[in-house]
Specification:
The protein contains 19 helices and no strands. The chain is mainly alpha-helical and 388 residues long. The radius of gyration is 30 Å and the shape is elongated. The termini are far apart.
Length: 388
Amino acid sequence: ITLSTSLFSPWTTLPSIVLIFSLIFLSIFFLRKKPLFAFPVLFFFLNHLVESTIFPLELVFEHRNYLPSLFLFLPVGFLFAQVLYGKNSFSQFGRIAIMFCGAVYLIISGHATYTRNEYWVNEESLWKDALRKAPSSARAAHNIGLVYSNPGQYDKAFAYFQLAVDNADTAASPNYARKNALNGLSNAAIELGQYDKAGKSIDECIKKYNFDLCRLAKVALYSHQGLHQKALDASKQLAKKNSSYQYNKTVVLAAYLANDLASSSNYIKKIIRTSLHDSRILYITSLFLIKEKAYSNSLFFLNQVVRIAPNVIEYQIAMAAAHYKNEQDNIAEGIIQKLIGKHSLSAINKTLAKVGQYDLDQETVIFLKNTILLSVRSQKLEFVDDAL
């Protein structure tokens, strides 16, 4: 779409303005004589006054046409009604020709709808189609990056966030597009262990745009680098500026990793009062309660966690650990057996190593490792692992 920068650039701008005002003027002039044709035109432009005026919104969004175009097909429908049922001067050939054209139009529209629905199956296919049609779209590239971030495909997410950064200058709002792309790129780089790249992107984002989401990424970078006290200090500064849920959550996670259980507990209480839907916060709460030896309370939160995210290995291991600490060894063993039936042993072992590093005492880790080993043997699975 070529942007108009003056009445004569591009040359189509002035003729388009003349055409629009002519349509409006003629519709008003013939409103009484030809209401069936005047009303849809006036309805279209009146509804567009809500979003398509001199105010600088983004140029194109197809949903803005949904309501305004409601009556545009009324004259077409009237024409076909006249052909089928009206007393008019249409010849037999004319009737057949009009009906044939109508049938062809319906077939083409139906096929177009069917093929378009193939791209609307999920977000990935939708945004990839958008990027194929507009290769320089920072928005499309950024949204594909978000799609790949959710299941943890950070290598793919990184590539699309980088493309979004490269294309940001051509976006409708370049600064907005670039700062969000830099934030996405930073988070993907952190997960990939590319800390230097993440640090550069974060610093650019904060320096140029003063974007707090990039400061959150800075906290995540500190945490991944093992600089937990720095992460906690930075997260507390953010929470002072903005006491919203997202920032309080960041303090909870940073304080827990820094082993500042008092701070973690204080911020958990702020969050729990308003929400029991964030699996990560509920999970940290349950681990905190395990350390406080409140095992029954920990199981309450873990049950909520597993209900929200039943397939996360980390949460299942914590559930088994809480049952073990609550002297319910049989239940813990049953959870491990089910876990082995659903996930690969290497994935379970990696997750246990990660959880055991920060969250569980050595006795519990040894119990879980032995339970995994016994379960493997009982199911006659071939598995060799030095850690077990």
